[in-house]
Amino acid sequence: MDPTDAATAEITTHTARLRWQCRRGMLELDLLLSRFLEVGFPALDAAGRADFVRLLGYQDQILHDWLMGQAVPADAAMRRLVGQIRAAMRDDAAVL
């Protein structure tokens, strides 16, 4: 197998895994996280991508509170990422 094909297959598998992890118990979170995976995740650097994976490990209610602006993450990297996701939401809403 060509190394480029192998790398592409690995990225595709990783993205599919993340897409599955974006499926949550709350429809709002499903939509927000899945949309960010499509539009925002590709633009993140390696640290930002690792932070997104870490973010997906939080409970739904915590994520909901952060993304709806009802609470602020204590961790600086999570604050930055939540801000990016919220900005992507606003940008999407402006396009509609």
TrEMBL record:
Location relative to the cell: Cytoplasm
Main location: cytoplasm
Keywords attached to this entry: Chaperone, Cytoplasm
Keyword Cytoplasm: yes
Superkingdom, natural source: Bacteria
PANTHER family: FAD ASSEMBLY FACTOR SDHE
Protein name, entry field: FAD assembly factor SdhE
